[in-house]
Amino acid sequence: MEARNMQLKINTKTLAAGVAMAALSFASAASAGTVVIKDIQGVWSSQSPTGTVSTSGATSTVSWGTPTEGTMKSSYSFTSASAPFTTTLSDGQSAGPFTLGTFQHNNWPVTGTTLQTVRLTVSGVVEIDGHDINFSGFVYDFTHVETPNEGSGWWGACALGGYNGDSNNKYGCSDQVKVNTNTFNNSFTFGADTYTIDIAGFLVGGNLTSSFITKESEAVTYKCGKKNKQTCYDYTSHAFANTADIQASISMVTSAVPEPSTWAMMIVGFGAAGAMVRSSRRRGALAA
Tell me, what's the pLDDT at 27? Predict the structure, then answer.
């Protein structure tokens, strides 16, 4: 009897240790994770019917046209966010919105063939508790609507509203940028957790939009005098920002697993069942 009681005590201690380890394991699985969105980059491609792509530092640019004055071509640029976005997420939580980068239409007066369509692919790295995971690109298809700078008719009516020279078309009629977002979310798994990055859209003047008007900039050339039969020139530019921030958010969901208390009850149940079977076998052996 003493040996049986001692064995039961040992089994009980072992069982308690198992329960504690199970509870600790699942408590750890449910803990919060530190998430860093970093190393964002944007790449232009599929430009049509014209466009030259270049990259300088964090900025990728597609440019087109022949400048009417100075050296400024019209262009689209994407500049990656300068600082990583850092947050802490637990099961069911989300964070954001945060900025992946900034789109800009450098709307200078040009002649010749102009851009009509182009694709921007944005990708980056998600760091989770020190582990880097690359997320595949978010794809945006742009349609560029170029309008005649001088407008039409006697008063220079602009195709997108207003007149050449008014407050919205000060240096020529405005153009339009249209964006079609092909990828709205991107999910990946780390351990038992599933993370999803969702694209909120393009933020212009505090509003999310898929289409926005971009004002025409101006490059003016002034003669600054003649000396010794040589002419010098002074270039003055008036530029509008014409920017839009690409906004996103990130969320985390832990895979469905039994609660620690449920696992503890299961372990206790299995242990008790095993003890009953062993006890029954011993009684059977003694009776024989």
Answer: 42
